[in-house]
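Q: Here's a chain of 197 amino acids. Please give me its 3D structure as tokens.
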Amino acid sequence: MFLEALLIGIIIGIVKKGRLSNLSYVRFRGWILIIFALFINILLIFQSKIPIINGYEHYLYTFGLVLIMAVLAMNLNKKGMWIILLGVFMNFVTVVFNGFKMPIYFEGLKVAGLNNMLYMIKSGYIANYIDLHEAVGWTKYISKFIVLPKPYPLAKVMSIGDLIMSLGIIRFLYGEMTRLNLSMRNRMINLGYKIKL
């Protein structure tokens, strides 16, 4: 859903006469933590080939969520950040209450045509998921149970938190695109400084 959110956010920004170039001026506090979180996700993809992390996969997954929340909290001044933070927090709560693993609807994976992912979860190649039926009580309602099946080209199983994050990404993108062009603002500041000289 995040790829779709990127596209929708940019399209809305263009419709609202925003500038795509504005995105090149966006600055994030703590951006290095995002790089670290991405590195953790890459490790989890190849976890079967990295014996040293065996048994710690779910903790790494949770730690990656914490890093992302920290960066979002540092950038709440930007439009949409609090919405994204809410979505990440909902996923974080779900994971914490379920032994540091995300419950996912196994039948939904079949419906979405994600049989390979289902096989990898059941075989232990992907260790940070459990069956939705094993989820703790109320956390089932904020786990990954929303199915976007084929023929949708990007079939998937999502959580409410994922949907909220996607809305936040859309809000952030078109919000930044429709801001006053930062490069123009910088030129005006520089011009004003030169005139004073």
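Q: Can you summarize the key feature?
A: Residues 57-74 form the longest helix (18 residues).
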